[in-house]
Design a protein that fits this description.
The structure holds two protein chains of two kinds.
Chain A (H helix, E strand, L loop, with lengths): L10 H5 L9 H30 L1 E4 L2 E7 L3 H8 L1 H32 L6 H7 L1 H5 L2 H12 L5 H8 L13 H29 L3 H9 L4 H30 L2 H6 L11 H11 L3 H27 L7
Antiparallel strand pairs in A: 1-2
Chain B lengths: L1 H40 L3 H4 L14 H7 L10 H38 L5 H11 L4 H14 L6 H25 L3 H9 L4 H12 L1 H17 L2 H6 L8 H9 L6 H21 L1 H12 L3
Helix pairs in contact in B: 1-13, 4-7, 4-10, 4-12, 4-13, 5-7, 7-10, 8-9, 12-13
Classes of the chains: A mainly alpha, B mainly alpha.
């Protein structure tokens, strides 16, 4: 917002070289050049190149063949059952993971916004899952879920919930749920941090005023807290959706898309097609399909972020 | 009457007690899975495989960690690959993540400053471009990146990893530093210039020190992103010359011959640097994540 102050009115102004340099467009471009070079060369160029490859028949198994087939790869994707299955599993995984992250994140953020002994310790500890690399997270949960010596089996049996050890990762439904839980553990802190920051921005006077007017706890939440949380919640929702769609490491380590195709999401399918079947043409078409879905969500995110509202002040 | 009077304080304190109970549950949820990994890394293999599980190691041992320093010892035979590769891959990860962090701060500070201070045509477009490139899924870039890096003969080189990570971390860094620079009063740099500094001196001696929390935060976030990456590392590296820790750790996960306790130990080692950063710079992280995702 501070930029408004120096916004130049006329063309003459724009070229004026002031001592501080606030009005020097060439200088600005010079400062941006190194960053732009890296991003254009290593993100811009690949994304265009990737689109080009996706229009070709190109497999590393026959590296000399590079035939233009138009949208052939995309047609093959849409007509294949594997795509629809992967899309459905992506929806299931994303929907469950996002719902859990948002609910759990909100609950923990509300809790940590209260005053109680030990709160600061919990606020610090909540960062722990966030700091764990997804690969280690996957490994950690793999052993927890282990069918022969896992902690989950050990715990549930000793508490009497189940009578014998189970293979949590070998049943299609429990494998997906196990994957969701592992991902949620890793992703939940970000939601807590963002929502807690939003809660702390709510002026205390609003609560006092509402209490004076006779509001109960639920009314306080609905009429005071929630309006301030609506935008951050939406942001958490979108960020988590994007990251769940992209989830890769944890799937690789924990289930590798299995059992069968029970946890084969679009991202995992893209990886398999590209680096297992070595079909780079089809793989890139898959990658593009994922990108398009992500991009649509990202556009929504931008709109939420830049709709100047009460939250941004 | 007496009973009611005695109960009143309890009823008043009930919400606090419930909050503490909630805090305890959250603590268990956060700590329990990780503790099991840590405890396993201090167990002997047969203890780790016991049924029911040993929650507290009966005979705690450092042998798993010591194996990494003595990859030719007797213990190493059962997990030779794990034993040999863990420490070198940790060094690789440190170099790749450290390099990414350093370059991020340098390039990000320049671009971030221009976006925070200078009015120029295309500023909005650039901001949008940086934000947009953060949204690209890595899986979409991996094939063309792989082909390009192969063309330049940089496969299995740490430099290829650093430059790849730079692409992913720089947009966030630029946005983050932009908001830090915006929070520094303009009067500060104007005063420096009036006192006879040129722009470079002003930037180096006045502005960067004033923005140092932002620089630390940016370095830390990019370090952690680079440290955590698996997808690019597994595709772009092939030998221990450039394999990073996540690649080595994930390699064990799919390898049944490596001992579980040894894997746990290398998993714990992979967690230490990001965990240290997270707890040391807690305040900066919370600030940075919030301003990076929410604020303009």
């Amino acid at each position: 917002m501070q930029d408004r102050a120096t916004k130049s009115d006329g063309r003459a102004d724009r070229w004026r070289v002031s001592a501080v340099g606030y009005e020097r467009p060439y200088f600005a471009f010079l400062l941006n050049t190194p960053a732009l070079l890296v991003i254009v060369l290593l993100a811009g160029y690949p994304i265009v190149y990737s689109a080009w490859i996706s229009l070709h028949k190109y497999s590393l198994k026959r590296p000399r063949v590079f035939d233009f087939i138009g949208l052939g790869n995309y047609r093959q994707i849409i007509e294949s059952e594997e795509f629809w299955s992967a899309l459905w599993i992506t929806l299931e995984f994303t929907g469950l993971a996002v719902a859990l992250v948002v609910l759990l994140g909100l609950a923990i953020a509300l809790l940590l916004n209260r005053d109680f002994p030990g709160r600061d310790v919990v606020r610090t500890l909540i960062l722990l899952p966030w700091a764990i690399p997804p690969v280690v997270n996957g490994l950690m949960w793999q052993w927890i879920y282990d069918s022969k010596v896992g902690a989950l089996n050990g715990l549930l049996v000793s508490l009497g919930f189940i009578s014998e050890y189970r293979g949590w990762l070998s049943d299609p439904i429990s494998a997906l749920l196990a994957l969701v839980c592992a991902d949620v553990w890793n992703a939940m802190p970000l939601a807590v941090i963002l929502l807690l920051a939003a809660l702390q921005r709510i002026p205390v006077e609003l609560y006092d005023a509402a209490r004076v007017d006779g509001g109960g706890p639920f009314q306080l939440f609905w009429y005071v807290t929630f309006p301030w949380l609506a935008q951050p919640l939406l942001i958490v929702l979108i960020l988590q959706t994007l990251s769940a769609i992209r989830a890769f490491d944890v799937i690789y380590v924990l289930t590798a898309g299995g059992p069968g195709t029970a946890t084969t999401t679009l991202t995992w399918k893209t990886f398999l097609t590209t680096f297992d079947s070595l079909d780079f043409g089809l793989g890139n078409a898959y990658a593009y399909t994922v990108s398009m879905i992500t991009l649509c969500l990202a556009l929504v995110y931008f709109r939420v972020l830049y709709r100047r509202g009460d939250f941004e002040a | 009457m007496n009973r009611i009077a005695a109960l009143a304080p309890f009823r008043e304190r009930l919400p606090t007690y419930l909050s503490m109970l909630g805090g305890l549950l959250v603590t268990i949820y956060v700590l329990a899975p990780f503790s099991w990994l840590v405890l396993t890394s201090f167990m002997h293999e047969q203890d780790a495989l016991s049924v029911p599980p040993q929650w507290i190691p009966a005979n705690p041992t450092l042998s798993n960690y010591l194996t990494f320093f003595d990859p030719t010892g007797t213990r190493a035979v059962v997990g030779s690959r794990a034993a040999e590769q863990t420490l070198p891959s940790m060094a690789n990860s440190l170099i790749a993540a450290g390099g990414t962090a350093a370059l991020n701060v340098i390039l990000g500070a320049l671009a971030g400053y221009s976006l925070a201070r200078i009015t120029f045509r295309g500023r909005g477009t650039l901001l949008g471009l940086y934000l947009g490139s953060r949204m690209l899924p890595g899986i979409a870039l991996i094939v063309p990146l792989y082909l390009t890096i192969r063309t330049y003969g940089l496969l299995d080189h740490l430099s290829a990893l650093v430059i790849t990570y730079l692409t992913f971390t720089l947009p966030f860094t630029i946005w983050l530093l932009k908001s830090y620079f915006q929070a520094i009063p303009r009067a500060l740099e104007e005063a420096a210039l009036i006192d006879g500094c040129n722009w470079g001196q002003m930037f180096w001696h006045v502005l960067l020190p004033a923005a140092s929390p932002g620089l630390v935060a940016a370095a830390m976030f990019s370090f952690m992103t680079a440290w955590n990456d698996y997808l690019f590392a597994v595709i772009l590296t092939s030998t221990i010359a450039s394999k990073t820790m996540p690649v080595v750790v994930a390699g064990f996960a799919t390898d049944v011959t490596t001992e579980r306790t040894l894997m746990a130990a290398s998993g714990v080692l992979a967690v230490i640097p990001p965990l240290l950063l997270a707890f040391l710079f807690q305040r900066l992280i919370v600030q940075g994540l919030t301003s990076g995702a929410v604020k303009d």
